[in-house]
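Students often ask why inverse folding is considered easier than folding. One informal answer: many sequences map to the same fold, so there is more than one right answer. In these notes we will look at a single instance of the problem. The structure comes first.
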């Protein structure tokens, strides 16, 4: 496969068919701009087709796993129908690409995981997380519906009550608590995360490949059966990008203040203004 065509993902082959994929924007905490988001959307099809790969491990360079969408990219999305359509397509390719990838995927969540980072971290078949890593889906705090992966996988991992709590409030959760409630497979001290992910991947790479791949395919039937839920949530997220709240959400993030969403203002407040 032409992995050399990627610019913000790096690839390293390990023994037993393990392919280590690293999100490589450490100076931006691996936040996704348009290029990295696109690469994360298409890489899983390439992994599936690569005959040398039996298992993929994905991690982040530096201190973070992936700090979500680059704010400048998010600002470019707001109110731009063409960009929103493109993002919706890539979002679907990323989620369904991981679900349908023939090879098992292990995430080594070595630091903060937000936005696309949470997608890749939690849609992986096995997730190894740093105990002190902060994980969350902050869409509502930005002013958009929790789309991406949230509605399809959080209820399956932690149950509806916990999923609703974290997705409706946008609160972050530490890796050790994420393990306790079943959001991730395992939590370890940060310095052990990548080694453990590679160890697990090596085990998978030495097992019967048809057995491993068909077991994954069977288990992911749960996710495929929830495809309509994902499609709806993704469309709702993109719909919100056409409204005014996300503009205020972006401004609040850039100015490091609490947002004052237009949708929370009453008619009386507007009259006073």
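Output (designed amino acids):
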């Amino acid at each position: 496969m032409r992995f050399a065509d990627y610019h913000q993902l790096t690839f390293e082959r390990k023994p037993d068919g393990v392919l280590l994929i690293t999100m490589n924007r450490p100076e931006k905490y691996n936040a996704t701009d348009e290029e990295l988001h696109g690469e994360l959307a298409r890489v899983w099809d390439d992994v599936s087709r690569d005959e040398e790969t039996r298992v993929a491990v994905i991690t982040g360079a530096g201190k973070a796993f992936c700090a979500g969408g680059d704010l400048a990219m998010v600002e470019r999305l707001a109110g731009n129908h063409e960009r929103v359509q493109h993002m919706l397509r890539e979002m679907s390719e990323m989620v369904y690409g991981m679900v349908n990838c023939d090879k098992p995927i292990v995430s080594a969540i070595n630091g903060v995981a937000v936005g696309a980072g949470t997608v890749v971290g939690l849609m992986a078949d096995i997730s190894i997380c740093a105990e002190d890593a902060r994980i969350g889906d902050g869409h509502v705090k930005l002013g958009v519906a929790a789309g991406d992966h949230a509605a399809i996988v959080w209820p399956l991992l932690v149950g509806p009550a916990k999923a609703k709590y974290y997705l409706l409030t946008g609160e972050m959760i530490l890796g050790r608590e994420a393990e306790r409630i079943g959001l991730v497979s395992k939590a370890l001290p940060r310095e052990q995360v990548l080694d453990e992910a590679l160890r697990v991947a090596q085990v998978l790479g030495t097992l019967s490949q048809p057995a491993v791949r068909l077991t994954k395919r069977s288990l992911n039937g749960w996710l495929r059966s929830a495809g309509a839920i994902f499609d709806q949530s993704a469309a709702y997220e993109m719909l919100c990008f056409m409204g005014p709240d996300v503009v205020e959400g972006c401004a609040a993030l850039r100015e490091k203040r609490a947002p004052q969403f237009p949708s929370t203002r009453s008619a009386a407040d507007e009259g006073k203004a």
